[in-house]
Amino acid sequence: MLTLENVSVSYGAIEALTDISLTVNQGEVVTLIGANGAGKTTTLRTITGLLEPKNGRVMYEGKEISGMATHKLLPMGIAMSPEGRGVFANLTVRENLEMGAYIRKDKKGIADDMERGFTLFPRLKEREKQKAGTLSGGEQQMVAMARAMMSRPRLLLLDEPSLGLAPLLVHTIFEAIDEIRAEGTTILLVEQNANAALHHSDRAYVLETGRIVMEGDSKQLAADPRVKEAYLGE
């Protein structure tokens, strides 16, 4: 479904990604783990057209999308829940979710998906008319994910969904990821919480200073002594 082929990206003279290749197959959850500054968010920004590769290309469903304008990707079935949540602070929870469906015209479908979001995150239903800026960090993360799902994406990009959240909320977020995947949405998950990411994904890539240094089945990587020592605190 999604393929990065030998992609390199620079910020001026600094190379942020060096010759990375990765694949996300339809129906999978693939995770990208690595320390802060490893290039994880840069990878997502490159996929979504916010950055253009210096070398290599990004392919989605057989079509090259390298450097394509970001707003053109949403109708193609790609949506992202960004790092930092990016909620519209002065809009209510409901209005934020409606913004996620701005390219759609099917009112019944939008209403159904709104209710689906509230089923996925019951706390949002309780806060439906509350301004998103007044919510806790965990609740804002729920808004960001539910909003991304309102466009009915085939590929969902999640950038650090558990960052800064209490353990109970981390559990809630990863339960939602499992549910979204069970409904057929393909997910590329960027996550510093390597333990949770590896337990809720099929395959994983390990990024270090802009290079992919390991890849494979998530369970196998979770059992790898090098991954345990570097990312799982064992």
Describe this protein's structure.
- The protein is α/β, with parallel strands linked by helices and 234 residues long.
- The protein has a domain at 1-76 and 186-234: Rossmann fold.
- It is built from nine helices and ten strands.
- The chain has helices spanning 40-47, 93-100, 107-120, 122-126, 137-149, 167-182, 194-199, 218-223, 225-231; strands at residues 2-11, 14-24, 29-33, 55-60, 63-64, 78-81, 155-159, 186-191, 203-208, 211-217.
- The protein has a six-stranded mixed sheet, sandwiched between helices. A four-stranded antiparallel sheet has the order 2-1-4-5, covered by helices on one side.
- β9 (203-208) and β10 (211-217) form a beta hairpin.
- α2 runs parallel beside α5.
- The radius of gyration is 17 Å and the shape is globular.
- The protein starts with a strand and ends with a helix.
- The model has no long low-confidence stretch (mean pLDDT 93).
